Amino acid sequence: MMNIAVLVSGGGTNLQALIDAQNSGKIKNGKITCVISSKHDVYALERAKKNNIPTKVIARKDYDSIQTYTAAVRDALIEVKADLVVYAGFMTILDSQIVEAFPYKMMNVHPALIPSFCGKGFYGLHVHDAVLESGVKVTGATVHFVTEDCDAGPIIAQKAIPVHNDDTSETLQKRVMEQCEWKILPEAVSLFCEGRIKINGNKTEII
After folding, report:
1. Cα–Cα distances in Å, from 127 out to 2, 106, 107, 134, 158?
2. Which one is catalytic: 110, 126, 128, 144?
3. Is 164 tagged catalytic?
């Protein structure tokens, strides 16, 4: 059984999707054993506590540099013996220390179809603003491995939905979360825990 650590910064809707998938048996050979937040008093911590999942707050504001902050998060993940680290709305870009400690053992869900609308600055409603401004007809979500380059690691799963003419950034964000993120993130986590993801360069193969 693999230990899954989830990194959060806010409400924790993707964490809830993982908890629900775990409780219904959809995540095989893995269990969420720790939730680490970059902020105090966020609802994601309450979601974890309601499900008896240990939590830890490592507040970004308490550290004077990204290097010292990354080291603290890395050490906490090593301490809880994390086999897989899931970024679920984690709003801090950590440096290479974390990648070196957990190579191809960290995954992130991004609310767009990478390589479009991704990289630094593309988070939250900014992503959906850009999608609507571009005029694309489809959008979606991507689960990928975390590497040193932001949103550039091997893609594990993607799901697309149509963009509607009357969409706002808020309605699009809600639909992408509900129809894409909450579905493919638990699936990708289970595939990892089952040992079914094979990495070839910057591509993955599901076996």
Report:
1. 32, 22, 19, 11, 16
2. 110
3. no
Q: Cα separations (Å) of 75 from 3, 9, 14, 88, 150? A: 15, 18, 24, 19, 21
> What token pair was written down for 139?
């959008």
pLDDT value of residue 173 = 97
Q: What is the pTM of this model?
A: 0.95
> CB of 161 within 8 A of CB of 136?
no
Give the separation between CA 179 and CA 85, rounded to whole angstroms: 23
Biggest CA-to-CA distance, the chain: 48
SS3 135: coil
Cβ-Cβ contacts under 8 Å for 119 (sequence gap 6 or more): 150, 151, 152
Residue whose token pair is 């986590």: 189
On the question of pLDDT at 120 being above 90, the answer is no
Give me the residues paired with residue 148 across strands: none
With a CB cutoff of 8 Å and minimum separation 6, the contacts of 147 are: 99, 153, 154
Residue of 76, 68, 65, 3 whose CA lies nearest to 37: 76
Q: Report the share of the chain in percent with pLDDT over 70.
A: 100
Torsion of the alpha carbons at 16, 20, 23 and 26, rounded to the nearest 10 = -120
- Specify burial of residue 42 (Cβ count, 10 A radius: 0-12, 13-18, 19+): middle
Amino acid at 43: Y
Strand partners, 105: none
